[in-house]
């Protein structure tokens, strides 16, 4: 598949699938769509404030808008005066078949709509994982060299780390 980046009405980027002439998001905006159709209706912002932890499976991750918009909105919410500041943990397992779409992630995360995210994380912190991951996978999506993924909560506390190559070497091949 061949994709082109297209700017939507809210200034966020979407992918145009050239073969079928269809955008991955509506023209009103990819970020607006993620917040209004997924983040707010899900109630996850309220749930994480109550429980301190949520786990998400982001199937069809694409350009990452749903997961990153949730993190961005959570950081915005926590920056408001009087907002709860207790520790929270957010676990996201993202699955995407098209590595071509994921290559647009650095451009997506640099957008002004991700203001809270960019004020709290440097571009390297939220882009290096994806760049590293894409450069270390073979054509079947398996790591080709040791790759340690570390998980942190939103307060910067390390929760655990795992070496994906070692983990996958123990898993049976499909």
Q: Which blocks of ≥5 consecutive residues have pLDDT under 50?
A: 126-135
Helix and strand content put the structural class at alpha+beta
Largest sheet: 3 strands, antiparallel
Task: Kindly state the percentage of residues in helix.
Answer: 40-55%
N→C terminal distance: 24 Å
Count the domains.
1
Written as H for each helix and E for each strand, in order along the chain, the element string is EEEHHEHEHHHHEEH
Could you give the order of strands across the largest sheet?
Answer: 1-2-3
Shape designation: globular
Average of the residue pLDDT scores: 77
- What percentage of amino acids are in beta strands? 15-25%
Helical element count?
8
Number of separate strands: 7
What is the topology?
Blueprint: E1 3-7, E2 13-17, E3 22-23, H1 30-42, H2 44-51, E4 53-59, H3 65-79, E5 89-95, H4 99-102, H5 105-109, H6 115-120, H7 123-135, E6 148-152, E7 158-163, H8 164-170
Parallel strand pairs: 4-5
Antiparallel strand pairs: 1-2, 2-3, 6-7
Helix pairs in contact: 1-3
């Amino acid at each position: 598949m061949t994709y082109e980046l297209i700017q939507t009405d809210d200034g966020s980027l979407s992918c145009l699938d050239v073969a079928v002439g269809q955008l991955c998001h509506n023209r009103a905006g990819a970020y607006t769509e993620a917040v209004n159709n997924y983040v707010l209706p899900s109630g996850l912002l309220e749930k994480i404030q109550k429980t301190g932890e949520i786990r998400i499976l982001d199937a069809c991750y694409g350009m990452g808008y749903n997961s990153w918009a949730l993190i961005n909105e959570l950081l915005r919410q926590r920056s408001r005066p009087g907002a709860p500041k207790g520790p929270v943990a957010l676990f996201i397992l993202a699955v995407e078949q098209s590595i071509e779409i994921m290559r647009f992630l650095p451009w997506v995360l640099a957008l002004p709509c991700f203001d809270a995210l960019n004020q709290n994380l440097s571009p390297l912190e939220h882009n290096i994982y994806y760049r590293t991951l894409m450069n270390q996978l073979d054509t079947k999506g398996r790591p080709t060299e040791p790759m340690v993924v570390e998980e942190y909560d939103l307060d910067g506390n390390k929760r655990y780390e795992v070496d994906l190559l070692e983990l996958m070497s123990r898993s049976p091949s499909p």
